[in-house]
Amino acid sequence: MPLDPRTKMVAGVAQLISERGVGATSVRELAKFTGAPLGSTYHYFPGGKEQLVAEAVGWVSGRLEKLLDKAADGGALAVLDAFIANWREFMITSDYEASCPVLAVATEDTATAGPATAVFKRWQGLLVTVLVQDGVSRPRAERLAWLIVGSLEGAVVMARSQRSPEPLEAVAEEIRGLIRDAVKP
């Protein structure tokens, strides 16, 4: 299903951020990248680059959260597998030219990292919920969920730099073991 012009711009800025970072992504570059008139970007995004970045992070997160919500009925391991499959496909599709745009926003400028911070907290919260449903105590689930998010984000960076899914797969296998151990009665 084709994206409407506004959503196409949001998706475009997410792609630019994932490939080039926030600093190298401008409203002008977005217009060029998406083929949209420059005036349209200012019409749809009167808040400029800051609004674009926030919406791109929200768009990426929304897509991932829908995927993780669908997997949640299968428990924490199914959610982890959905998370990994998403990043694996994302990197392979981009030929390892792209990384997580949420991570890029979080690390480039802490003054504007608010949207990324909120996304990481939502991902952690989703993982906590499914881990608790699997029988993990809430305090352990909260720590384990942060470990999962942080480990996977780092593994994505390493996989991109090595142009290989190996770091992601290795980290995922270790996390699977931690989840299995945590949900044992």
From TrEMBL:
Residues 14-56 form the HTH tetR-type domain. Residues 78-174 form the Transcriptional regulator LmrA/YxaF-like C-terminal domain. InterPro entries: Homeodomain-like_sf, HTH_TetR, Tet_transcr_reg_TetR-rel_C_sf, YxaF_TetR_C. Coiled coil: none annotated. GO terms for molecular function: DNA binding. Keywords: DNA-binding, Transcription, Transcription regulation. This is TetR/AcrR family transcriptional regulator. It comes from Aeromicrobium ginsengisoli.
